[in-house]
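Feature request disguised as a bug: please show the residue count (498) next to Peptidase S9 in the output. Example input:
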Amino acid sequence: MLASTVLGVVVLAVLGAVMGPQWDPVPLTDPLTVETSSTAIGQAPATEHHDVRREVVSVQLDGATVEAQLTVPVGLSGPARAVVFVHGAGTGTYSDAFHEQARALAEAGVVTLVPNKRLDTYTLRHRDYVAMADDYARSVAYLRSLPEVDPERVGVYAESEGAWIAPVMAAQDPGLEFVVLVSAPVVPPRQQAAFAADAYLRATGVPHGVFRAIPRAVGMAIPGGGFEYVDFDATSYQRRLTQPVLMVYGTGDSSMPIVQGAVQVIRDAAIAGNSDVTVRYYEGASHGIRVDDQIVPAFLHDMTGWVVGLPGTAGASPKIAGDQPNQTFLAMPVPEPRWLHNGDVVAVTIIASCAVVLLAGLVVPVSRGAELAAVRRGGQRSGRRFAPGVARWTAALGAGAVVTTVGFVWYILVIARLALDYSSNGLVVTGLWLAIRVVGVLVVAVACLLSRSIVRNRAQHVPIAPGAARTVALVGVVGASAVLLVVLAYWGVYQLGI
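Example output, currently without the count:
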């Protein structure tokens, strides 16, 4: 019995190992060294202070209209520099984004425009970054049409997901004066997602075995289709960046490749003959350059000084400054699962297998109910029963396989929530994982007991599952449970360091 269970676990462990890619991120061995701990921008002038006026305007897009908040410095002596803000992921509006940045720039004499994000073409499954760049270009055109704005001094400020859009805008419109990239992913979304998942899981303290799920989840085609944008690569656009670029990261932002991203933009811009890339790192700041949910004041001061001081600040030293960044692993292309690449197949397989187990559990009671009804009508009892032990172990196998699968899915959701909240819970992270694996091994033991019961009854010439209903129930539960055990093995429940 023990030997059979061990053999079953080993077989599942081997299957899980060979069915899909492992997760083995490459360490980053070429760190980016800051020139000074001060984030001050070289040659930044003393900034003026203006009162500002705000108004909500409409920007006409291709097939839609969005509202935008325009902030204009009061008392300008002539047409001024201007900035269009590009939102990160989510439903960005001028009422909930970029308040501090827009105010700081406007008070320093820069006209700012924060348009609402267009949402009729933006969903979780569909995002077209090139089309989004065209939409934001309409806001640039709007600013250039204003008498308060110098049309040759309009730039773009992009944060997070917006940093995939801004290089497209800059490549397609060389007349843009500058680009500010804040918390920029740089690498394609799928690579950034795997990198962030790895960092979150390490911060949460999950057992090493859970990491196998990263390439198998991130690398597969997502159930339901769509999500083509996850492989969008901005490299070709970054290699056409001729404008001065300011890149800003917080060293507490574990979701972004804060070293690799800066290095790549510096190299890409150099291909266009552009050496004017300035990089700043702010100590302990998270995504969006915030500490304790408050934007870092030094960032606002430095960013404003860099923008107002152009073109003098474009190539000023130091080029790379602030807190020393640390990135442990590279954000890399995600291995594609060999066998279970299709997410629809994975989802349907799990749901269908659980459904088969549950439905099979109803077949025999329904059949027995029909037999009892026949007896009450004057018929005879069939006398059909599962062979001794078969019914008990079959029910335990099906229930155990479903419970383990549901428990694993729930565990992944719990871990995801902890990771997104940057929190840890040792009892849940380690204890629940151990519990799932223990239950998984017990299910294998139950399968061995069922197999032994079948073999013993056959040797004694006892019918295993007499009648069509019992045969269907037995085959359904055993088959569906076997599929679920293989799926659990694929996601790492039975791994033995293989």
